Amino acid sequence: MPFVRPDKLAAAAADVLQRIEHTLPTIVASTATYLTNHKTQQILFKPIRVNISQCFEELYVLLDKHYTADERAQVNPIDGASLAALLDDKFSPAAILASQSASRAKRDAATALAAAASAAVGVAQTEALNDRHDETETETESQAR
Fold first, then answer.
1. Is the distance from CB of 72 to CB of 63 less than 8 angstroms?
2. pLDDT in tens, 57-115
3. Residue 15 and residue 18: Cα distance in Å, rounded?
4. Mean pLDDT: which of 30-34, 107-111, 136-140 is highest?
5. Per-residue confidence (pLDDT) for residue 45, from 0 to 100
6. How distant is the alpha carbon of residue 86 from its chain centre?
7. Sequence-distant (≥ 6) Cβ neighbours of residue 100 within 8 angstroms
8. pLDDT at 124 > cutoff 70
9. How far apart are CA 57 and CA 104, in angstroms?
10. Sign of CA dihedral 129, 134, 137, 138
11. What's the rounded Cα separation, in Å, for the pair 75 and 64?
12. Pick from 116, 132, 100, 95: nearest CA to 36
């Protein structure tokens, strides 16, 4: 009997793939913000790629050694070639540039939103001051009569 149920192993493998798809590009983009040289990026990202690949290799060995064919089919992890292609895609210079552009666009949108909010607050404050000024003038005129 394996020490981890196949459905739990499948869920863990799927979670890792989901993180590779959705979280890794953000991390790569934020790192690439400080590293503009693509060769330096590739050198620094290589251990991460290797670690991910080794973890899946260990999973394949574990499945072969401790699980039946039906249980292996239930886990159905990504094959080595597909994993390599996915990692190539996520760590490619084009993907890094696209992630940087998306991050920059989000940052620019947040800055524009903050500026608009600041302008709206300024307008509201000006209107409030004008209303108070108008009330003061009305009271002064009433008292003068």
1. yes
2. 999 999 999 999 999 999 988 999 999 999 988 888 777 777 666 666 666 777 777 77
3. 5
4. 30-34
5. 87
6. 17
7. 29, 32, 33
8. yes
9. 36
10. negative
11. 11
12. 100
- Enter the pTM of the model: 0.62
Instruction: Supply the pLDDT for residue 1.
Output: 61
SS3 for the chain is CCCCCHHHHHHHHHHHHHHHHHCHHHHHHHHHHHCCCHHHHHHHHHHHHHHHHHHHHHHHHHHHHHCCHHHHHHHCCCCHHHHHHHHHHHCCHHHHHHHHHHHHHHHHHHHHHHHHHHHHHHHHHHHHHHHHHHHHHHHHHHHHC
- Long-range CB contacts (within 8 A, 24+) of 103-108: 103/26, 103/29, 103/30, 103/33
- What pLDDT shows up at residue 91? 82
Tokens representing 64 are 């072969």
